[in-house]
Design a protein that fits this description.
The complex is a heterodimer of chains A (133) and B (321). Chain A has 5 helices and 5 strands; from the N terminus they run βαβαβαβαβα. Chain A has helices at residues 20-31, 45-54, 69-82, 98-107, 119-129; strands at residues 7-11, 35-38, 59-64, 89-94, 111-113. With 321 residues, chain B is α/β, with parallel strands linked by helices. Helices cover 46% and strands 12% of the residues of chain B. The longest helix of chain B is centred in the C-terminal third of the chain and has 29 residues, at 256-284. The chains are: A alpha/beta (133), B alpha/beta (321).
Chain lengths: 133, 321
């Protein structure tokens, strides 16, 4: 019997022009033995939730640099609730002001990572969710 | 029938995704559910899409699904996209959805990415099992995209009713086309990136390869068509969808549909037997006995065949009785 792999959706909602950060995270999670579904740039909140549902992921990692996080993230959380994906955790990375991060954490985002976060930290946090730290 | 399988048959996509995970991970619950659904399988047209990495498989699948739904809007189409697992970490980056934007949030489409998890034939070990779940759930057709295939990743031929091999100009000369393997399993040959300059030379290579493979054309024989496409703008896709349709009709008329179905089931059954065998092997050849024999192999005191024979008779046969 195979060990259950942690499946992570790495998604970039909104209009960001590049995805270097998201790719670095995807690669780091892969190297930590996780299966990462990477969907590329300019995803709508609907696309993010559809992908999370079809791929049966454990974690959604969002990367947003554009400043649109206060409209995109609540929308994604709302759609996630509607799709009954209650046990799927959302992580957020990007350029998120502290005050906004506080609000989003209250709304249900599991963790918010700013520039300079080590990939090891993200890997450990995700593993921690599954008791594999 | 469990609640989960009932929900899958009722069209619950969340339940479907869950069940696929259970089947992919080879859990007892997944195996049981699959056996429960087995009677509801066997009607779906399974289409394989294979070819070298970068030939444009995912982009082709994206437009092909769009085209199929344009022709038959009531259908539900599933895509299984396989990407390789890292041999070092066991992790994977599954990126086929990047090229499937146009169908990503279509309610008639279900896309599932699978990591190969160490299997070498271009698919994952449980890809067929997952396709049976989608089959039972009423998806038709099911399109299976293999990992970027070189020459020997031909497992898809025993799993799909129709195999599309995607080629692109500039990937190799006509000797590559003449080699055995992946070219031989094509039911439909797609020459993608047909807006590139070298497309005529590439088509000529494919044609001469086909002419060698099919020296004389008998009545009612299927000869793979060569179709030019530009998957990034949809050019030539209608012809590919038509060819898929024709191939399905041909399989039904010629009786080859049943033949292919039998091959699929035989591969499935043999695979399960092999897995059971492997489990027994691990159980009955104890680790210390293996190490003892292996140490002699390292010292060159015992040759590999003799060592295998000794482990089989002295450990496996003895311990399993």
């Amino acid at each position: 019997m195979e060990e259950k792999k942690i499946r992570v959706l790495v998604a970039k909602p909104g209009l960001d022009g590049h995805d270097r950060g998201a790719k670095i995270i995807a690669r780091a999670l892969r190297d930590a033995g996780m299966e990462v579904i990477y969907t590329g740039l300019r995803q709508t909140p609907e696309m993010v939730i559809q992908a999370a549902l079809q791929e049966d992921v454990d974690v959604i990692g969002l990367s947003i640099l554009s400043g649109a996080h206060m409209s995109l993230v609540p929308r994604i959380l709302e759609l996630k609730k509607r799709a009954k994906l209650d046990d799927v955790q959302v992580f957020l990375g990007g350029i998120i002001p502290e005050a906004d991060a506080k609000v989003l954490l209250e709304e249900g985002v599991k963790a918010v990572y700013g520039p300079g976060t080590s990939t090891t930290q993200v890997v450990e946090d995700i593993r921690g969710l599954f008791g594999k730290a | 029938m469990t609640d989960l399988t009932q929900a899958v048959l009722n069209g619950d996509r969340r339940a479907l995704a869950r069940l696929i995970t259970l089947v992919e991970n080879d859990t007892g619950e997944g195996q049981q559910a699959l056996d429960g659904l087995f009677r509801d399988t066997g009607k779906t047209h399974v289409i394989g899409v294979t070819g070298a990495s970068g030939a444009g498989k995912s982009s082709l699948v994206n437009c092909l699904v769009e085209e199929i739904l344009k022709r038959e809007p009531d259908k539900s189409v599933a895509v299984i996209a396989v990407d390789p697992t890292s041999p070092f970490s066991g992790g994977a980056v599954l990126g086929d959805r990047i090229r499937m934007r146009a169908i990503a949030d279509n309610p008639h489409v279900f896309i599932r990415s699978m990591a190969s998890r160490g299997a070498l034939g271009g698919l994952a070990q449980n890809t067929q099992a997952v396709s049976l779940v989608l089959d039972a759930a009423g998806y038709d057709p099911i399109i299976i995209e293999t990992v970027g295939a070189g020459q020997s990743e031909v497992e898809i031929a025993s799993l799909a009713h129709s195999v599309i091999v995607v080629e692109a100009p500039g990937l190799g000369d006509d000797v590559q086309a003449a080699k055995a393997g992946i070219m031989e399993i094509a039911d439909i040959l797609v020459l993608n990136k047909a807006d590139k300059a070298e497309v005529d030379a590439a088509e000529m290579a494919l044609r001469s390869m086909l002419a060698m493979g099919f020296p004389s054309k008998e009545e009612g024989m299927w000869v793979p068509p060569i179709l030019r496409t530009v998957a990034t703008n949809g050019e030539g896709i209608a012809e590919v969808a038509a060819a898929v349709h024709e191939h399905s009709a041909y399989l039904h008329q010629s009786g080859n549909w049943q033949k292919r179905d039998q091959i699929r089931l035989q591969v499935l059954l043999r695979g399960l037997l092999e897995k059971k065998h492997h489990q027994e092997w691990e159980e009955f050849i104890h680790r210390d006995e293996f190490q003892q024999v292996f140490d002699q192999v390292i010292e060159r005191e015992l040759a590999p065949h003799a060592a295998a024979e000794r482990l089989y008779t002295d450990s496996f046969l003895k311990n399993s009785h």
